[in-house]
């Protein structure tokens, strides 16, 4: 048992990896003895039980697949800083290809991984420093691509949050105004949508045909909603 007493901690990390999480997520910074204390939970009942009562283990290992040399791609959490920088353009390209294929959820996951790499590097820089700004300018187009995926997945409030965070730093970002306008329109924030679309036209008048189409779509939806509300309320008051 003494040889496997720390296995529950290792198993938790492996389970985090399998779920696409940081292997150290939720791990407390304390000594091993404190980790083993009865009030500490790993979040898995079977591991908690094994932690309380260590016993000899037998491992049954199954080979799932064999990776060809050079084909294995590390998860972002396992990369060095240099590997993260080198991986971002490749992950970005993979996301774009998935998006072109109509695999929007998969593309969003790729953009998220690329953003995570850059955010990890950015956390090590002084906010507002040249290096921090350079990384932020690499994050922004990836975040806009991510927002485009979320628009198509109808996750509008996430789009509102991300685009607003971009516009708090870059007030002239046309794409952020346009995507936020679409998200506002989708959740019936009419005045906010109109304001964002107006800002798009101020910054880039050449986009008038595209903006006009969005505004016509919003107006049509409003008329349809008004008609539905009249029928609904008429039914209520006639009872």
TrEMBL record:
Top-level division of the source organism's lineage: Eukaryota
Repeat positions for TPR: 174-207
A Gene Ontology term for the protein's cellular component: cytoplasm
Any GO MF annotation of the entry: peptidyl-prolyl cis-trans isomerase activity
AIP/AIPL N-terminal FKBP-type PPIase domain boundaries: 1-63
Compartments, as annotated in UniProt: Cytoplasm
Repeat recorded as keyword: yes
Keywords attached to this entry: Cytoplasm, Phosphoprotein, Repeat, TPR repeat
Chief location of this protein within or outside the cell: cytoplasm
Annotated function: May play a positive role in AHR-mediated (aromatic hydrocarbon receptor) signaling, possibly by influencing its receptivity for ligand and/or its nuclear targeting.
Quaternary structure and interacting proteins, as annotated: Interacts with RET in the pituitary gland; this interaction prevents the formation of the AIP-survivin complex.
Protein's name according to its UniProt entry: AH receptor-interacting protein
């Amino acid at each position: 048992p003494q040889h496997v007493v720390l296995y529950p901690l290792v198993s938790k990390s492996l389970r985090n990896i399998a779920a696409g999480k940081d292997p150290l997520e939720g791990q407390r910074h304390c000594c091993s003895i404190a980790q083993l204390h009865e009030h500490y939970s790993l979040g898995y009942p079977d591991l908690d039980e094994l932690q309380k009562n260590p016993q000899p283990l037998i491992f049954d290992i199954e080979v799932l697949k064999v990776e060809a040399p050079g084909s294995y791609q590390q998860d972002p959490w396992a990369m060095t800083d240099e590997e993260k920088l080198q991986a971002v353009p490749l992950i970005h390209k993979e996301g774009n290809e998935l998006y072109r294929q109509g695999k929007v959820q998969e593309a969003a996951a790729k953009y998220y991984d690329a953003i995570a790499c850059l955010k990890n590097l950015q956390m090590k820089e002084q906010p507002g420093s040249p290096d921090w700004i350079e990384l932020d300018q690499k994050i922004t187009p990836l975040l806009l691509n991510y927002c485009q995926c979320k628009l198509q997945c109808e996750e509008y409030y996430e789009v509102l949050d991300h685009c607003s965070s971009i516009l708090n730093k870059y007030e002239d970002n046309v794409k952020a105004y346009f995507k936020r306008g679409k998200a506002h329109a989708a959740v019936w924030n009419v005045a906010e949508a109109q304001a964002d679309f107006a800002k798009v036209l101020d910054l880039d008048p050449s986009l008038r045909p595209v903006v006009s189409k969005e505004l016509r779509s919003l107006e049509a939806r409003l008329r349809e909603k008004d008609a539905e509300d009249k029928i609904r309320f008429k039914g209520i008051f006639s009872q």
